[in-house]
Structure formats: structure tokens, C-alpha cells
Specification:
This protein is mainly α. The protein has a two-stranded antiparallel sheet with strand order 1-2. The radius of gyration is 13 Å and the shape is globular.
Amino acid sequence: MPEELFVIGPDRVPVYVGEPPAEILHALDIEIARWRFVARHPEIKHDGGGSTSPLCRMFTKAKLICSGCPISSKTGQSSCRRTPHGEVYEAFWGRDPKKIAAAAEKMGAFVAEVRDELQK
């Protein structure tokens, strides 16, 4: 999945420019590409949050946040708690490009693990 599915928007956050995913594995592949994009562009303002995440867009319906999301199913939590996502936020607060890149890579690896488990 090419990272070119994302561009840096005028407000310095990633913007997804591809087609909406039709199924969960495709959404997970796009999510992995998103974190790789963030790792390659630590100068961005932040990761874009749920508006950039294909999983959030797929699994947030009205007040049912994360209902059915494979990451939420794995962790038992909503909003990517108990994942490396917290490290990403901390790194952005500190504005350290190396820490941002490392945390984003870690989050991408976590999502890849979830994808691999679903493919079994």
C-alpha cells in the first residue's frame, strides 16, 4: 500500500486522498501506510487523529466510537488506548522528530500485528 495515499494538508496534518476502504483488511493496510507517512514526515503538526484514520472513519458511527474496530477488539479499549498511539501523542507534544518517527513506526507495527492476526 503506497504512502502516497496521504499528503500534508495546509494545516500541516496528513490528509488521506485515496478511496474509502471497503473492507477491514484494506482499512488496516491504509492505516499502516498512514503511520509510515507520519514516520517519514515528523515535521507535521500532529497525526491527524480520527479524521485521518481509515479505521476511525469506518468504525465511528454516531455515539458508537470504535464499535467493531479490530484495534479496539484487540485491546478491549476505545480510542486506541493500550496501543503505542499514546507514545505518538507524547512525541508530538515534545516536538522531537526522532521520537515522533520512532513512535509512529511502533504504532504502524502494532497495526500490522493486528492485520496479521486477522489474516490467520
